[in-house]
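Hi C.,

You asked whether I'd gotten around to modeling the 93-residue construct. I have! Everything is below, sequence then structure, no commentary in between.
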Amino acid sequence: MRRGHNGLLALVGEKLKGDSCGGAVVERLIGVMESPEMTPLEASLTREVEEMRREQERLIQERKELRERFELLKGMISGGSGKELSAEKAETE
């Protein structure tokens, strides 16, 4: 079950419940989205989304590592003299 799609469709369904035509369409869409079978397009899109998530996680981890290295180098350069810039300020300069 793809929670994101179902959540969005449920939200739209709640908004359209008063509309007889719109409510029926949304109920049908929710039924299709909850079906265990995926079309080839859905499977392909799901794989692409998972790839993007993995890439995003990798980039987040890489950014954390770079920030740690930056902080270490910044500490080495300043020698602990109290003249250190904050990481955010140094990034903008």
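If it helps when you're writing up: The radius of gyration is 24 Å.

Thanks,
B.
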